[in-house]
Amino acid sequence: MPTLEELPARLHSGRIISEEQYIKILISRIKTKTIYEGDCWRYTGKKVGKGYGSITYKNRTIRLNRFIAYVYHGMNLGSIVMQANHTSNCKYKDCWNPKHIYAGTQQENVNDQIKAGTFYYGTNNLGLKKQKELKEARIRDAITRKENE
Prior knowledge:
Elements: H1 19-32, E1 34-37, E2 40-43, E3 47-48, E4 52-57, E5 60-63, H2 64-73, H3 77-82, E6 85-88, E7 101-104, H4 106-116, H5 127-148
Antiparallel strand pairs: 1-2, 3-4, 4-5, 6-7
């Protein structure tokens, strides 16, 4: 089975165009569904998962942030989808500003989400207990500081 990069780029009209032309058309469509808030470029189109933007690229639905990592940072799209993680240094999951997206490990991605306050804490999440302990420790520290003043 060919990778996404090996598939020819096509428009809905059926004519074959270059990869570069296809990406320019997609980016222009993405920009029409974008709200600019400071440095963040928030996608208002279709969302998947927990609020990530998604687009159709070569007849496959992919997350917008992974597509942007491919286009602007030259990351292999197949490895992004199957193996690697992108990380974002902003708090919006629908942000697609290339300056906010970079390659990273799963742990770096989780750390970024915790720092931004966007990490999903579920009852099945192993990090939940540790996070509750950290929150309780911060509260105890704040109370202790107040008492010592």
